[in-house]
Design a protein that fits this description.
434 Repressor (Amino-terminal Domain), single chain, 5 helices, 61% helix, mainly alpha
Length: 64
Amino acid sequence: MNIMRERRLRGAIPSQRAVAEALGVQESSVSKWERGVSKPRADKLPIIAKLYGCTIEELLTSND
């Protein structure tokens, strides 16, 4: 999920907290996704892709 961190740091999303609030998850979950420790549930992928302005495929194939 490296693409998530890269896009957030480039200003697409202001903070992990903003992502967590938009998705209805814990901020620690977003941190784990960005670090590659865990992956989001499949039902969250369309929302994440829209939030970050990328495709689901890009989320799934990004290298950690």
